[in-house]
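Section 5.1 Outputs to date
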Amino acid sequence: MMLTKNMQATISRQMYNMARDVDVSLYNYLDNIMPNDYIIDTLMFYQTSDGGFAGGLYIDNYNTNASVYQIYEAFRYMSMGDITSECEHEEFEKMINRALNYLYNRAEIKDNKWNPNVKTNNDFAHSMEFEYTEDNRNLFGYGPTAALLGYTLEYCKPSKAYYKKALKMIDIMLNDFYKMESLTKYEFIGFNSFLNSIKKLGLYKEEIEKIEVKLVDLALKAVSLDFEDNSAIHPLDCALFLNDSKLNEMINKELDFIISSIAPHGLWDYTRSWGYDKYAEEDSAKLKWIGAISVNNFYVLKKFGRIE
């Protein structure tokens, strides 16, 4: 299945009607309408005084205080928007330095993993996985940590102290990774992201094949084709940056499902739940998710050549 030109026209119109500015800026870049500088402009609204990101950049966490996961989300938008260390936006280097300062000098870290959540999450509306608990620390595992270490290598100059700290953490992480017998959904996403970063940079050349072989093996054991089960590990969660024939077949099935599940209004609806009926803000989050899910889906459809 392909995303037809008529579908794309509807998506373009509805993104302006229903999506946040940060999602529109990324979509406009992916659709070749505007340069990716505008992504930096929109991310600036979410950066906090201590250098982190907050304020619902990741929609299911309304905390106005910075957290590691929100920084991961900012870097993920940059990565989807092909922003590199060569970005000439006047605020880019400052934004990166402030975010890395938060990560490496302020954020909570235990067993070589950043805690994606902060205690103040519990004072604001949030979905269940963003409750500050030990269970959630384990749920995320190496998730955002793996991705953030890759992004550090991408966006930080090798002469910086943050870069050198990242290298030390990566050595420990890879030693742990090779011993792991299973991964959570967040860990699959994180290690895929890390693999993509080092491939782009040409780093850890002797490790790339070992990492990919291990990820493919674990993914084939964990992947589910029940695309309506939001708790399951799906092909695009565990194999977004892998190259394996069996996993590629599964990815193609998920891409077909994505195209077939466009809502009547022309974008994609939020089908997940916050996990409890604790916060009325979940209703407003569902509306914001329409644009965020739609730009994420457009990104993967374009990546795999499903745009007509």
